[in-house]
Amino acid sequence: MNVPVDPKTLVAEMSPVSTSEQIATMKKALLKNIQRSAYVYRVDCGGCNGCEIEIFSSITPVFDAERFGIKVVASPRHADILLFTGAVTRSMRMPALRAYEAAPDPKIVVSYGACGCTGGIFHDLYCVWGGTDNIVPVDVYIPGCPPTPAATIHGFAVALGLLEQKLKAETHVEAAGETAALPHPDIPYALRVRLEREARRMAGYRQGRDIAEEFMALLEGHAHTPGSFSLSERMLEAIGEERDPRRAEIIARLADVVQRAIRGEAPRGEAP
Amino acid sequence: MLKLLKEIFRTGEATVKYPFAPMPVCKDFRGKPEHKAEDCIACAACTVACPANAIQMETDTAAGSRTWSINYGRCVFCGRCEESCPTGAIRLSDDFELAVGSKADLTRKAVFTLADCACCGKPFAPAKEVDYVARLLSQSARSAEEADRLRLTAATCPACKRAQDVHHIAGMGIARQMEAGLSKTGKPAKELETTP
Ligand code: SF4
Ligand code: SF4
Ligand code: SF4
């Protein structure tokens, strides 16, 4: 008989470390006194090493974290700030806790990267704890996969109280009668889909969407203010004005899609 | 020594001014996914596409609401939400300053209301999505009558549509049912018109 097993009973639930009042006040004093001497120890709890690479690029001369006295040290016993990267794999839990215990109180814990914040892309893996805050109390979260060196510097500035955090929790509630606008209502739906599809096929979703939007703005502009040019003249002009040959090619193809639609032919590559 | 000094002057200062001056980022930088809830139709395409499950949807039929939420702490900045969004409501911005002190500030939510099925009256899809689809379909309708029919179709839940189709087919003569069956094996079904 296979009795359903509650997966919760199979894993040991270990409570995260908590800090006392006294340490919290000491931490406030530390933040005031730390000024320009923040020693950072980096604990890799099983990430992909992308985060480590970005940490090291933020201590290169270009970003130069040492301007703020941020130094990476080799032992947790010298550290004021502990930087946890990675999703905390099961086997890294004890070493991570040992590093945490070894650092002298008061200490600031920074959770680095999407993995450190919540487990990131590995959050539901069987072998991870899913985030630094599941094992130790965290003071600052720096999201990113990996955070860019500039984001790292910003995160440290937030941790040291130099900058305010920018993000705030927000909830949008749908207003009565709120509707999403139809994109380009003047262009037939079938034509719009063909244009978007062709542009995306040629340039990918980001640039493709941008080019398609520009092109459809051109079509709409023509419809609203026809002027003395015909549509094909106007499209040829747009192609001629384009400096980037790749974009010119894509716009030429979009113009071809429009011409075919006007002639009532099936789009290229599709049976009529 | 002079050579070294010369080299230093030639190189200039390599260090960026950030955070004392804004940091320029390149075009199409993948930063924080910016969600414009006004343009969102709560279709959940981004929820399905998100590889890290940073975007999640919760449907509460009792309260008649669907809550969209994003956790910036879990996002891996892949851009798949932007790729899949039909209305362009979500787009990766060039904002990278995401560090926070409390985890709650990493989430953003949007609450949408559910529409009731035009047939059975049970909530089945977000009202904004139903409205958007109805307008999109009636845009390409040939007549006002067809537009009305398409609008009604969009406002009907899948279960009711299925029931209607079965009813419709059962009402047909046996010969037409056979024809409809045949059409599956190659011939186009011209006669069988069910709800699109
Ligand atoms: S956050 Fe991203 S880059 Fe950093 S360790 Fe995790 S997967 Fe790697
Ligand atoms: S960028 Fe990728 S990980 Fe981030 S919310 Fe969009 S789909 Fe999810
Ligand atoms: S894909 Fe776009 S419209 Fe659909 S739920 Fe996501 S953000 Fe909203």
TrEMBL record, chain B:
Gene Ontology cellular component list: membrane
GO biological process, one term: aerobic respiration
Sequence ranges assigned to domain 4Fe-4S ferredoxin-type in this UniProt record: 31-60, 66-95
Key words of the record: 4Fe-4S, Iron, Iron-sulfur, Metal-binding, Plasmid, Repeat
InterPro entries, sorted: 4Fe4S_Fe-S-bd, 4Fe4S_Fe_S_CS, NADH_quinone_OxRdtase_chainI
Domain of life: Bacteria
Molecular-function GO terms, alphabetical: 4 iron, 4 sulfur cluster binding; metal ion binding; NADH dehydrogenase activity
PROSITE patterns to which the protein is assigned, alphabetical: 4FE4S_FER_1, 4FE4S_FER_2
Name assigned to this protein: 4Fe-4S dicluster domain-containing protein
UniProt lineage: Bacteria, Pseudomonadati, Pseudomonadota, Alphaproteobacteria, Rhodospirillales
